[in-house]
# Entry
Amino acid sequence: MKSFRLKSVLVVLFLSIAFVSCSNDDDEKTPVVTTKAALVTEIKGPATGKVNDELSYDVTYTVDNACAEFDKISEVTIGDVKGLQVIAKYPSEVCTQQVPEPKKTVYKFKATAKGTIEIKFKKSETEFLTQKVVIE
# Structure
């Protein structure tokens, strides 16, 4: 009887160790990504458009290092003026490609009314780069 009990305890102990050692705790962690506003240097696109037509603009921006990637376009306010800014994401690892080249993304929008629209992207900490569009 003691032999059976000892074997049972040993089996339970062995299975417990095997279960704990097979956990996913040792898997690679997801890299942490940092985001930061990138400054826009150029906006290219049509100067005119029609109501409810989608217009596309090529937006060129600068990043801190070559490992940065586009994340999103978000709203920003400088003083009391509202505009847009490009957000870039940076990996947490050290970037070995230190010489960044200007990057591009496409901004699309659809006007719902006639008139002149100003597309404003953050150019520096204190000003916007503006593209005027006449909607007919």
